[in-house]
Design goal:
Chain B: Its cofactor is [4Fe-4S] cluster; Mo-bis(molybdopterin guanine dinucleotide). The complex is a heterotrimer. Chain B is of the alpha/beta class. Chain B is built from 31 helices and 34 strands. In chain B, helix 9 packs antiparallel against helix 12. Chain B is globular, with a radius of gyration of 26 Å. Chain B starts with 21 loop residues before the first helix and ends with a strand. The chains are: A mainly alpha, B alpha/beta, C alpha+beta. Chains A and C meet through helix 1, helix 2, helix 3, helix 4 and helix 5 of A and strand 1, strand 2, strand 3, helix 2 and helix 3 of C.
Chain lengths: 337, 949, 198
């Protein structure tokens, strides 16, 4: 598919090819003089010129705008093809596919219930600042994802069905929101990473967690298994690190795109664009998983980020090591204490 | 309005809009009035603009035929005007010169209809502040100052700097005005452009102009460009040149730089600046050595070639390589190419002319063409590309310090002829001049002070100049002083004069580069699109230009300003004796008709306004290949009736596209070399031998026609009775009935006689071209062998040669320096740097230098550098490191101004008139050196040093 | 249906920038200082082999700008021209990254996406506004195509290096030139291969 598109785009360069044939055609006419000067020798070698032009070699121009001295930049179009061919379907897949997969999983498997039911005693799990941080980032993230999806795919799923004026208003609003919510995300992301990193280091027992798929499976050999886990289980840790890493990518590449005054080379901008969207694919996928887990798949999970307290039984079942630890060192705090 | 700059070299206070649409145009006009002056100061012109209604798309459109005012190619344009606003420009595909094509300047022509940065009304500098004047007040004050100076110091203390931007009629009138004022201190930029060509070439074969045409180059098989870069200076000429190339012609480019034109060449030859003569002689060495010269052409039509053969022997290949730097194989190859591919043409421009031996350079090029027998044929000739749009016309009309209109010179007979044409008493004309005698010179019949050295006329000790007093007041009428070398002296002279009067659409450097607080007047002149008249292209064709718009702001057309001055001086009755005046504006057509009655020497007599307008209305009927109309109203005529267009308009001469073409009847534009220097020299016949133009009844050489000669030939009675009255005792140049010319042509003879071209110009300091090293030469080892002249008096001014060359500047200033054109700008650049569409493309002054020289100095491309002149000046510019330049050489464009030795002059401009782009002037650091015949400045071979800023 | 193309004959282009100012002139109402829709690039500047090429939007058949635009503001006309709607343009700059020719230009460079509305060569065909309307003139400049004329840059080209028009016609002209250049001795205008003159 990529090849086919590439061919097509090469055809779009047809005009330029013709344009440069001016150099190519008259090679024979003037080659007679064996003592032909350097001038002749070089003028009549069009291949070098064509190669230089295709390689994006800069020339001279009176227009002093960004890269105006480069006649052809093929990389930009290659990037555009990657974006169209891979990134766009990937985003669609990460939204629809991951959501669908989890829906299916939920329907087949059902939620992970608390084996002992709710104890009614609530332990402190997050403090106020954590909750604020989480929700600021969550809202920013969701806004960015929604507007980002509009920016990438809106022209396919929305534009054809509404008027041009409405579409114009929607898309320019999306761009405005996306640009300005970005910094909110970046700040909250940075604080979260710094604040939560100590809780998110991988331990050996996290390996076992993966082996039993976190104990969420309600059938077969996995049924009823509850692997060890600390404050965060291995899945959460994985989510955290994905957010940390791809959040960094998405932030840096995003900043590259909203500061035209940096005068970055087009190649860098195109790379940023691809990295931005590619990172978004992963973040969107994880986000959907995260939301599924928190809302319906794990009974009692949502409460943690609403009040900051979790049910004691939930803690015992899902974060046994953490529960044991805080109980042992006396940092365990009940809600009403 | 949104305008952001991409460079911070010159900060602008105001950032006005660039492209204006119809509505914005009107808004900005009214804004400008509010911003610049109080309402009470509004002139009528500006009020009109402010009241004008918006121009809707479908407003009726007038399509006006006009001619680009940027260079001498003479491209035609259709200007679209709606409700008096210049709203569109369309290609004139039917125009025979450009077929609709334009360079950057022509394509941006419509901006002349905006003129945001123009001078808006008359102003004077009072206590360092610009104050608005009314026209009446301005003329009164300026006129009175001139009269006061006249009574104290004589008429020669007023200098009339003219313009190559005048129409023919205005140029003629300006020359006449200077004559009526009583001075020969009148000149224009041809002095610093092709004056050496005019002198050198006219003294070789009769006329000092382009012999063929741009279109004719299509038929050439070999083109030698020496010191010419049409890709940047005459881009539309490339249409014809490249067509010729595509038909198989060889292109040879000889230049110190690998120019854009060199990139299109088959052979690029690098010569060291200032070695044109050794190069040409080097070619002739191979030509004579191999017997490639055209023997029969030389024996029939050339006088003195033996002297050249002798001289050429001094330039064997080894010597040429030593002096010029071109190898023997390349010289041989080029000579062979020239000899074997004919017809061939030679093209030269400023690269050849702007040397202190410029006149000899131009003669050397002619000699090459004579040796090859390339003259007087299609595809051959010397295609000398002129610069400004009407520099050919202004030259022809004697806007020069050494001649009256038509190259009549300044002899008493010449004055009498023109007094006759003007219908004035010679004695009255004479009485206008200073009657004294200065250093043995009589002011009326002696050459004045050249445009290149007006500042010496101000600064030089008055006992050493051949006139009563220094120049005390100068009109800078359409001329930028940043095109004159020795910037420091120019500034000093501006400071010293009593009064500066700038008459120009823009304030120009004369108005702003001084340190004065008083005594400067700025009078806004209209552009050529705000008036009408004829304009002579480089190929001698006259084109009629229609008025596109009414004068913007309060500006007035040049001829109206001249009339107002004449009136103030009390000489309007004489000056405009046979010219109808409408209001204060002399009728252009009457001026055309008046010069038609006097310009017999070069055949500016057949081009009546009616014929020119007919050609203008029938552009499409002329063939691009031949420039002739195969049918239609102008059937058989050459477009623009290129001079000489013999006789009266009624004689219907078709114009002469190719000079000295013996293959045609004179009545169809044929001819032969002119008999201008008598019939014999040192006892040798110098008339043509066995060569004559087709159909000539005299089958040999003959002298120029006079009344007596007609009688001897028995042709006297061919004259009508009325013609006989005028012709009696006259010759072909002074018979204002045109009868002598008519009769000569009827007998197949050309009025100016049939002689040989002479390669020995015995009335010049060097009778044959001799190589002399530039005054500022990097090759000290050659000074002894090729020395310059001794210091001497040239015209009215003492002129230095040897005393400069004696000093060794090359040690501290090792880089040869030349200057030249950029395609986006023109001349001093005031006009193009004020046109945002052009200014945007070239925003910074720079110096081109070779990678090697840059590396030696630790300079990188784009660095700021100082350019040091051996005469002390120092400018700060940007380095452009490019392989275009050979090691040891450097190049600067000369269009920039507005920064003087790192000092911005922007503060000196009246508000809102500073061009968008300012920069250091190349001529601030360019040096002394003047042609020994014409006082051409030497800007193409100087020295400099470059250091990192 | 015609497919409009530009073609630049490097053997004729002399970097006179006539096309650039022709564009500025004709589209002045929509342009400002610092924005050029067309530029001339010279490769091997100052060296043997120097060649200049005038370049602007090439109106690609499968235009990268059109494909990459998040706002879908580009459209292709029946003549194969790639035009855009400035009202929909969000100034993201992606078209500039994707375009091989560097055609899209932006008037501003302020942080957080304020590049302003993208501007590029319209082939002198205006934009989506009503033909010859004030809005079209201010946003897109001239609409010569609707007047039955070709783009100003090509029409004013000093040496006829830049050709514009129907792809078939333009390449025919170019092919004829090639034939003549390889057979310089043939009579100008007479094409031996087809036995006709132009």
């Amino acid at each position: 598919m990529l090849n086919k598109k590439l061919n097509k785009s090469l055809r779009s360069l047809f005009a330029l090819l013709v344009l440069l044939m001016g150099v190519g055609f008259s090679t024979t006419a003037l080659a007679a003089d064996e003592q032909s000067s350097k001038q002749q020798a070089v003028t009549e070698n069009p291949a070098d010129l064509w190669r230089a032009v295709k390689a994006g070699e800069p020339g001279f121009t009176t227009y002093n705008s960004l890269e105006s001295d480069v006649l052809i930049n093929v990389v930009g179009n290659d990037g555009r093809l990657v974006r169209d061919t891979y990134v766009k379907p990937a985003i669609a897949l990460s939204v629809v596919g991951v959501f669908g997969a989890f829906l299916l999983f939920y329907l087949v498997n059902g939620p992970s219930k608390l084996e002992k039911g709710f104890s009614g005693r609530m332990l402190e799990r997050w403090d106020k600042s954590d909750i604020w941080l989480h929700w600021v980032m969550a809202v920013a993230c969701l806004i960015l994802m929604v507007t980002g999806i509009f920016l990438l795919l809106g022209r396919h799923f929305l534009a054809p069905y509404i008027g041009e004026g409405t579409w114009g208003a929607i898309i320019i609003t999306c761009k405005f929101i996306h640009d300005w919510v970005g910094p909110v995300f970046i700040v909250s992301w940075l604080l979260s990473v710094i604040k939560w990193m100590p809780l998110q280091t991988f331990k050996l027992y996290d390996l076992k967690w993966f082996l039993v798929v976190g104990g969420y499976i309600n059938f077969g050999p996995f049924k009823g298994k509850h692997p060890d886990s600390g404050f965060a289980n291995a899945g959460e840790k994985m989510w955290f690190w994905a957010l940390a890493i791809f959040g960094l990518f998405v932030s840096v590449s995003g900043l590259m795109l909203v500061f035209p005054n940096l005068d970055l080379p087009r190649v860098a901008s195109m790379a940023a664009l691809l990295i931005h969207a590619g990172s978004a694919v992963i973040l969107i996928a994880f986000t959907i998983v995260h939301i599924w887990m928190a809302t319906v798949l794990s009974e009692g999970g949502m409460e943690c980020m609403v009040s900051g307290y979790c049910d004691e039984n939930w803690a015992k079942q899902h974060h046994n090591l953490w529960y044991d630890e805080i109980k042992a060192n006396g940092t365990l705090k009940y809600q009403d204490d | 309005m949104r305008l952001t700059r991409k460079t911070d070299t010159v900060e602008k206070v105001e950032k006005p809009g660039l492209g204006l649409n119809r509505r914005q145009f009107l808004k900005s006009a009214s804004l400008a009035t509010g911003g610049i002056a109080a309402a009470s100061m509004l002139g009528s012109g500006m009020m009109r603009k402010a009241e004008a209604k918006d121009v809707p798309y479908d407003a009726p459109t007038d399509v006006i035929r006009t001619i680009c005012s940027h260079c001498s190619v003479g491209c035609g344009i259709y200007a679209e005007v709606q409700n008096g606003v210049w709203t569109g420009q369309e290609p004139a595909f039917d125009h025979p010169f450009n077929s609709g094509g334009h360079c950057a300047k022509g394509a941006a022509l419509r901006e002349h209809g905006h003129g945001e940065r123009r001078l808006k009304y008359p102003m004077k500098l009072v206590g360092g502040k610009w104050k608005k004047l009314s026209w009446d007040q301005a003329i009164e004050e300026v006129g009175q100052k001139a009269l006061d100076i006249r009574s104290e110091s004589g008429p020669d203390s007023v200098y009339f700097m003219g313009s190559a931007k005048f129409s023919n009629e205005q140029a003629y009138l300006y020359r006449k005005l200077a004559a009526m004022w009583g001075t020969n201190n009148v000149d224009h930029s041809a002095r610093i452009c092709h004056s050496t060509t005019v002198a050198g070439v006219a003294n070789t074969w009769g006329y000092g102009a382009q012999t063929n045409s741009f279109n004719d180059i299509r038929k050439s098989k070999c083109m030698l460009f020496i010191g010419s870069n049409p890709c940047e200076a005459h881009p539309v000429a490339m249409q014809h040149i490249l067509t010729g190339k595509e038909r198989g012609a060889k292109i040879i480019v000889v230049d110190p730089r690998f120019t854009r034109t060199a990139a299109k060449s088959d052979e690029y030859v690098h010569i060291r600046p200032g070695t044109d003569i050794p190069f040409i002689y080097g070619l002739l060495w191979h030509i004579f050595e191999n017997g490639w010269e055209d023997e029969s052409f030389i024996s029939q039509r050339v006088y003195g070639m033996e002297r050249i053969r002798e001289e050429v022997k001094k330039y064997p290949p080894e010597e040429v390589e030593h002096v010029v730097g071109v190898t023997k194989p390349q010289m041989h190859r080029v000579a062979k190419m020239l000899a074997e591919t004919k017809p061939g043409t030679v093209v030269w421009c400023m690269g050849g002319t702007q040397h202190h031996i410029g006149n000899a350079n131009t003669r050397a090029y002619c000699i090459l063409q004579l040796a090859l027998g390339n003259m007087g044929v299609e595809g051959g000739g010397t295609n000398i590309f002129r610069g400004h749009d009407n520099v050919q016309g202004a030259t022809d009309f004697g806007l020069l310090f050494d001649t009256l209109p038509g190259y009549y010179g300044l002899k008493t007979g010449s004055w009498k002829h023109w007094a006759n044409v003007w219908d004035l008493d010679y004695e009255w004309v004479k009485s206008r001049f200073d009657q004294g005698d200065y250093l043995g010179q009589d002011p009326m019949t002696s050459t004045g002070i050249p445009c290149s050295r007006w500042h010496d006329g101000v600064l030089e000790d008055k006992s050493k100049i051949a006139q009563k007093d220094n120049i005390r007041l100068a009109f800078f009428w359409g001329q930028s002083v940043n095109t004159e070398t020795r910037g420091r002296e120019v500034r000093e002279a501006l400071d010293k004069m009593d009064t500066i009067v700038v008459v120009d659409p823009f304030p120009t450097m004369a108005g702003v580069m001084h340190n004065r607080t008083d005594g400067v007047y700025l009078l806004p002149a209209a552009t050529q699109f705000e008036t009408y008249g004829s304009v002579s292209a480089s190929n001698r064709s006259l084109q009629w230009r229609d008025q596109v718009i009414t004068p913007l702001f309060e500006s007035k057309p040049d001829h109206e300003i001249m009339y107002r001055l004449a009136k103030k001086w009390g000489i309007e009755q004489q000056t405009f004796k046979n010219i109808e005046i409408k209001g204060n504006e002399p009728l252009i057509e009457d001026l055309t008709r008046e010069f038609n009655r006097g310009m017999w020497t070069i055949g500016y007599t057949g081009q009546s306004p009616e014929r020119l307008k007919m050609h203008q209305q029938n552009w499409g009927t002329f063939d691009v290949e031949s420039l002739e109309a195969p049918g239609g109203p102008a059937r058989g005529e050459t477009y623009g009736l290129p001079w000489p267009c013999w006789g009266t308009p009624e004689n219907k001469h078709p114009g002469t596209q190719i000079l000295y073409r013996t293959g045609r009847e004179v009545k169809y534009g044929g001819g032969n070399f002119r008999a201008r220097y008598g019939v014999e020299h040192n006892g040798t016949n110098i008339l043509a031998e066995g060569s004559f133009s087709k159909g000539s009844e005299i089958k040999d050489g003959y002298p120029e026609f006079t009344a007596d000669m007609l009688k001897q030939l028995g042709w006297w009675d061919d004259l009508t009775a009325e013609e006989k009255v005028h012709a009696e005792g006259k010759n072909w140049k002074t018979d204002i009935s045109g009868g002598i010319q008519r009769v000569a042509i009827e007998h197949g003879c050309i009025p100016y006689g049939n002689a040989k071209a002479r390669v020995v110009v015995w009335n010049f300091p060097d009778d044959i071209p001799l190589h002399r090293e530039p005054l500022y030469t990097p090759r000290r080892d050659l000074v002894a062998k090729y020395p310059t002249y001794d210091d001497r008096m040239v015209a009215r001014l003492p002129t230095l040669y040897k005393s400069i060359q004696e000093k060794d500047f090359a040690k501290d200033f090792p880089l040869a320096l030349t200057s030249g054109r950029l395609v986006e700008h023109e001349g001093g650049g005031e006009e193009t740097r004020s046109n945002p569409w052009l200014a945007e493309l070239q925003q910074e002054m720079f110096i081109e230098m070779s990678p090697a020289d840059a590396a030696d100095r630790g300079i990188r491309d784009g660095d700021a550098v100082f350019v040091h002149s051996p005469e002390g000046a120092k400018i700060r510019v940007k380095a452009m490191v490019t392989p275009r330049i050979t090691e040891g050489e450097s190049f600067m464009p000369y269009h920039f101004a507005g920064v003087f030795e790192s000092e911005s002059l922007e503060k000196n401009y009246p508000q809102g008139t500073a061009p968008y782009v300012l920069g250091e002037s190349a001529n601030t650091v360019l040096t002394y050196g003047y042609d020994v015949v014409t006082q051409m400045q030497e800007t193409k071979s100087s020295l400099c040093q470059i250091s990192k800023a | 249906m015609a497919v409009m193309k530009f073609l630049c004959d490097t053997k004729r282009c002399i970097e006179c920038n006539g096309c650039v100012t022709a564009c500025k002139n004709e589209n002045a109402s929509a342009l400002e200082w610092g924005i050029q829709r067309r530029r001339v690039v010279t490769i091997n500047d100052g060296e043997p082999g120097e060649a200049s090429i005038s370049v602007a939007c090439m109106h690609c058949t499968d235009a990268p700008c059109m494909a990459v635009c998040p706002a879908d503001c580009f459209y292709q006309t029946d003549d194969g021209l790639i035009l855009h709607n400035k009202d929909t343009c969000i100034g993201c700059g992606y078209c500039f990254y994707a375009c091989p020719f560097g055609a899209p230009q932006f008037p501003k460079k302020t942080a957080f996406g304020s590049r302003g509305k993208m501007d590029k060569c319209t082939f002198c065909a205006g934009g989506p506004e009503e033909d010859f309307s004030e809005a079209e003139r201010l946003k897109y400049g001239a609409n010569r195509i609707a007047e039955g004329k070709l783009p100003m840059c090509a029409e004013l080209c000093a040496t006829k290096a830049l050709l514009a028009g129907d792809a078939g016609v333009v390449s025919d002209i170019y092919r004829e030139r090639m034939v003549l250049r390889n057979n310089p001795d043939t009579i100008w205008g007479y094409i031996p291969t087809v036995g006709s003159s132009n």
